[in-house]
Amino acid sequence: MKRSQITLKDLAKELDLSASTISRALGNHPAISEATTKLVQKKAEELGFTPNSIASSFRKKKTQSIGIIVPRIDIYFHSLVISGIEDYAYKKGYNVSIFQSKDSLKREQEITKILQNKMVEGLIVCLTIETDTYDHFKKFKRLGIPLVFYDRVPKDQDVNSIIINDFEASYKATEHLIEKGCKRIAHIAGNQFTPIFKARYEGYKAALQKHHIKQDPNLIGFTKNLNYEEGVLQAKHFLQQASIPDGIFCANDYTAVSALQVFKKAGIDIPEDTAIIGFSNYPISQVIEPHITTVNDRAFTMGKEAAKLCIRLIEDEQESVKETISIQTELIIRESTLRGHLN
């Protein structure tokens, strides 16, 4: 991927100022007016100019470093992705720097500034649930630093990405419940601002429609973060219905665990009365009883493919075509949906 370093001369030309004025403004020299200083510093940030001496040497000597931005390291999915990235990068002689945005757009924006100054050669990112603008990533493109997004990727943008087919995976999961005899199927959904969770909701709806099952709005539970506590609240809501669901498809395994525990405590037999499916194949899905049927999203493979693509783009400076790689998922069938009289 061809790189282009922004210089003092570039800034001077953009602002119609002398290079010496630009240099002084960047150093907050008292001889330069506050208005000019702010103007120069804003334009420098916009163009991705790095004023330190390391930046110039960076373009001549590789750092063998890749930056990673994840929403939360404590989420098993992201920890597996990181393992996949590190495993491949290490074999190729690259180091990784890991940052977590905590699902905050502001924090994500701040991290990109830090990574620019660290002069990484490539960047692998999973966006926050708040991210609806991508200007903070444009400076990396201007500098010729490869960007690879995984899982949560920019909407309607021409980017390199590693994804799964969330719609298809959710469709198959819901259809599995239907095949097990479920007719009143609930869904604990993720934040609908996030494309992957919207796709999972759409896959659920499509499966119901294909099999001529009417969707009941009382059996849809929308969450913000898909955490355990939100899953408990939604499961309790389902129990309050005149007719409880005989199947529940959850957008992740944390909420599937919530639903299973709430329903078992209420005396509901899993899976004979209510069958439950999760998503992501977290370790907890095999610990809790009964073991939870889930979708394996192959997070480790996703990380490995992200690293492979990123390093290829770093080392092939002429490559410019954007690539989307879709990882195949797998429905892992366990006890939470294996109804004895239907098998």
From TrEMBL:
Matching SMART domains: HTH_LACI
PROSITE patterns listed in its UniProt record: HTH_LACI_2
DNA-binding found in the keyword field: yes
GO molecular function: DNA binding
Domain HTH lacI-type: 6-60
Annotated Gene3D superfamilies: 3.40.50.2300, lambda repressor-like DNA-binding domains
The keyword Transcription belongs to this UniProt entry's keyword annotation: yes
Keywords: DNA-binding, Transcription, Transcription regulation
Cross-referenced InterPro entries: HTH_LacI (IPR000843), LacI/GalR-like_sensor (IPR046335), Lambda_DNA-bd_dom_sf (IPR010982), Peripla_BP_I (IPR028082)
Alphabetical list of PANTHER family matching this protein: HTH-TYPE TRANSCRIPTIONAL REGULATOR GALS, LACI-RELATED TRANSCRIPTIONAL REPRESSOR
Protein name, as recorded: LacI family DNA-binding transcriptional regulator
